[in-house]
Design brief:
Layout: E1 14-15, E2 21-22, E3 27-28, E4 34-35, E5 41-45, E6 52-54
Antiparallel strand pairs: 1-2, 3-4, 5-6
Length: 64
């Protein structure tokens, strides 16, 4: 928590006033500020790292 405001500083992949909510689908990173860059995926990626979650039949860093 911030020493003056008491506001939580969430780790990558988490958001909310108490950091209890994962990033919404398609978002990742600190403050959920990054968009997933995945092609043949279910539209999602790891909320902390941005690693793509590929659908069956797709492989590669971006499920291309």
């Amino acid at each position: 928590c911030h020493h003056v405001t008491g506001e939580c500083s969430c780790p990558p992949g988490w958001t909310g006033p108490d950091c209890a909510h994962p990033c919404s689908s398609g978002r990742w990173g600190r403050g959920c500020a990054n968009s997933c860059a995945c092609d043949g995926s279910d539209g999602g990626c790891d909320p902390a790292t941005g690693a793509c979650s590929c659908e069956p039949g797709f492989t590669g860093e971006r499920c291309q």
